[in-house]
Prior knowledge:
Layout: E1 8-11, H1 17-26, E2 28-31, H2 38-45, E3 49-54, H3 63-68, E4 74-77, H4 87-92, E5 96-98, H5 105-120, H6 123-131, E6 151-154, H7 158-168, E7 174-177, E8 188-190, H8 193-199, E9 202-205, H9 219-225, E10 230-233, H10 242-251, E11 256-259, H11 270-273, E12 278-280, H12 289-307
Parallel strand pairs: 1-2, 1-3, 3-4, 4-5, 6-7, 6-9, 7-8, 9-10, 10-11, 11-12
Helix pairs in contact: 1-12, 5-7, 8-9
The chain binds ligand A2R.
Amino acid sequence: MTASNAPDIIMTGPLMAYAADQLRSRFTVHELWKADDRAAMLREIGARVRGVAGGGAHVRIDGALFDALPNLQLVANFGVGYDNVDAVEAGRRGIIVTNTPDVLSDEVADLAVGLLLATIRQLPQVDRYLRAGKWLEKAYPLTTSLRTRKIGIVGLGRIGKAVAHRLEAFGVPIAYHGRTRQPDVAYRFYPSLVEMAADVDTLVSVAPGGAATHHMIGAEVFKALGPNGIVVNVGRGTVIDEQALVEALTSGTILSAGLDVFEDEPRVPAALMALDHVVLLPHVGSASVHTREQMGQLLVDNLKSWFDDKGPLTPVVETPWPKRG
Ligand code: A2R
């Protein structure tokens, strides 16, 4: 296919060369996120654009962008979470949205378990202790343990199940909270998050972002979890009320937290960073070369499949394929 008849697409954020090079060989690619004057770029090319490769939080993909792209057919989002895309509005306009499910589940679940153990056994703090030469003075204080813990998973979806599967090997009891009981799952289901928090001491959140889950883990949940409580979040930062979390950690309402995601990334509240008894990661859940390549490939394959008239590979629930009605 020559550049002149290659469909025009825009990239809303950086993609690794592995995916970006494939896009450039098949499409006419416009890098919106690099433009000094995005509005001018959209005025110039907007009517030609039929696809969007969405990456990062650089440009929100919503009605305002759709207005500038009247012939847009497909938004291929990089990542399984797509709260950066107004998928409901896309569906209303007949635009299909795809994400990158499954290919990252194992990687994020590995990270979740690592973060859980790092938080419980204070691995970053212990490392800092050794490097500071303090081992020469005395042994590191004893920590809490996974051995006696009960785990509550918030959002037992693809990633949540992969986390649960791994934790089974650790011999700890597992429960879950979601909107619906899953008949094929043996773990205890709690329709109420607060009730689950009262019965367990460790929460692992793998729930998606968006309005429905905004701040669902807040002061009431921390109180129910109690002073031995640990919260790990590898889903979306907006699910946790960060201010309430800082208060809960500072007052001893809960014991500790391990966070890979934050409300306003990449900004992390200074009050959180000032706490030595939390483990903070810069949203690296899926961030291995292997898994990011798999995600990039699925994004590329969604765009190619669509423009080969074979439909989207992984449409999100808000924009089902074949289209309804
Ligand atoms: O509510 P359910 O039964 O549909 O369970 C889903 C749960 N979930 C919620 N739980 C409580 N309140 C809500 N408002 C709510 N909305 C969704 O989250 C389901 O078990 C889980 C999401 O699972 P999946 O759709 O399979 O997503 P996946 O691939 O596990 O990724 C989860 C999230 C992404 O959305 C990104 O934010 C992050 O992990 O990478």
